[in-house]
Amino acid sequence: MGRIADEAALRAIYGEPSTVAVGKQLDRLDAHCRAFIALSPFCVVATQGPDGLGDATPRGDAPGFVGVLDERTVALPDRPGNRRLDTITNVLGNPGVGLLFLIPGFDDTLRVNGIAEIRDDEDLRQRFAVADKLPATVMLVHVREAYLHCAKAFIRSRLWDPAGRVERSRLPSLGQMIKDQVNGEITVPDDAELAALYRNELY
């Protein structure tokens, strides 16, 4: 018993995947994938940094905010954030990305893997304008793999079950937690300032 270092050892524990688990993988977005993305207001974007560490970041907007340009290309507008630029700088060095699309109330998810590039074409940015505000850049993902993922994680976690919701009071506010973490070394906006930032800098 101990650290597992090769796939053979893993397969000895887990066995082989089913024919459905392997065979469902597509190399493009079919009608079902497109419909799923059109209904999704939220996705997680996974990249890898130059230090080899993985990075997963949330992206969200109105349903269908990720544009399907064709069966092998999706476009994600980059809305105002914290300007760390972790995701898009990661893509500059390693363009491989993974997307996980969620729909509120759905236990199924859609996984899309591909090769990304960062674009600032005016016509592409215009396509994703909100109230005349354009995203600074748009990430194009050239699809290599797409497949629907089973519901087990969502069933186990009861993510959409109202009875499983956690009261926000169980943790301090975001501002307070960050203040505790930095221990006075930097100035952190208070809760009212953070709320104002959210209201004024969504787009």
From TrEMBL:
<dbReference type="InterPro" id="IPR012349">
    <property type="entry name" value="Split_barrel_FMN-bd"/>
</dbReference>
<dbReference type="InterPro" id="IPR011576">
    <property type="entry name" value="Pyridox_Oxase_N"/>
</dbReference>
<feature type="domain" description="Pyridoxamine 5'-phosphate oxidase N-terminal">
    <location>
        <begin position="29"/>
        <end position="150"/>
    </location>
</feature>
<protein>
    <recommendedName>
        <fullName>Pyridoxamine 5'-phosphate oxidase N-terminal domain-containing protein</fullName>
    </recommendedName>
</protein>
<dbReference type="Pfam" id="PF01243">
    <property type="entry name" value="PNPOx_N"/>
</dbReference>
<dbReference type="InterPro" id="IPR024029">
    <property type="entry name" value="Pyridox_Oxase_FMN-dep"/>
</dbReference>
